[in-house]
Amino acid sequence: MKVIVVGAGIGGASAGIALQRLGHEVVIYDQMRENKPVGAALSLWSNGVKVLNWLGLAAEVAAIGGLMDDMAYLDGHSGETLCRFSLAPVTTQTGQRPYVVARADLQALLMERFGMGRIRLGARLTGIADDGTTVTATFADGSTDTADLLIGADGARSLARDHVTGATEGGPRIERTHAGYTNFNGLIPIDEAIGPANQWTTYVAEGKRCSVMPVAGGRFYYFVDIPEPPGVPYDRAEGTRPLERAFGHWAPGVRTLLDAIDPDASLNRVEIWDIDPFHTWVRGRVAILGDAAHNTSPDIGQGACSALEDTFALAITLATTTLGVEDSLVRYQKIRSARAADLVLRARKRCRETHAFDPVATQAWYDHLRTEDGSEIIRGIVGNITDSPINLGGGTL
User: Fold this and answer.
1) Predicted pLDDT at 177
2) What is the rounded distance in angstroms from the CA atom of residue 75 to the CA atom of residue 83?
3) How much is the pTM?
4) Residue 197: CB atoms within 10 Å
5) What is the C-alpha to C-alpha distance for residues 102 and 41, in angstroms, rounded to an integer?
């Protein structure tokens, strides 16, 4: 069977690898002209890592993953440690250590494993036609390709999503919802004046957070959140000035972090949006996955993991059912849409708590952190992993 995948991101590239391993002819199209991932790094919790292991990438992912042994929350103003605990229970309960990886490293690994010769860059999708036997993709340069199946992994502004939901034919378009904050992120050298080299360290105060996580190569992935509405003007020439205004009065560790940021080398600014959960992921021979299907805020670190779960469910369904492409895709949708929706809503709930959209709840969370021994936080992290399809019902021990 021939498969067209639109989008060479984490979801699209991993799906391409999985379907190739099943013996299908797969080609990936992406509108980017060169591999320039959006965002500096991402969290791979155990459910996401397990899918990559299943794809035959266990050793390679371990090599690019940062060793995140502990987790700590600090008061953003004083630098006082509110709580600190080991993340080892996540590994022992789920059977796999989580990693934080530089997005460019993971993207390059997936694209190289799929095969760069089968990835067509600079190809912007403009149309999809499904005649019931084959599906044809049309691109901005007028070129077309026809296959038995098309997977739309084309991101939060997905044209493939518009096709499956009927928006391209005049139906209502699914729109994104602003999460209420802007995220700045990047990579800096590890400096233990900010936090230990093997620890996820987060400073919290004022409904804001400033966090570092270790990635391979002696680097911290840093991300900071500033509650603000969409559309706040920002020019790259401003560099870290918005961070100085938001965090310049915070604890010495945060000061060290701000001083370490080189805006020309690694500073990304991202307005955070998500999409209300919906359950139409499939139409005929076309299916969507990743952000096209369940764009979520990063507040529980499950965005990339959820895309990888899509890959697993799609490949398993196509490998084990024989009533036709359309039937297999509906079964994929049934496996994934409810769980993906649940994670989107969990991230929204977490977002409200951490960013003081409900100030009473946020203050209660700050107060609770002073007595937290890690058990409740571990329970939440593992709870996001337990029902993953990759676990086959045996996800936690």
Assistant:
1) 96
2) 10
3) 0.96
4) 17
5) 4
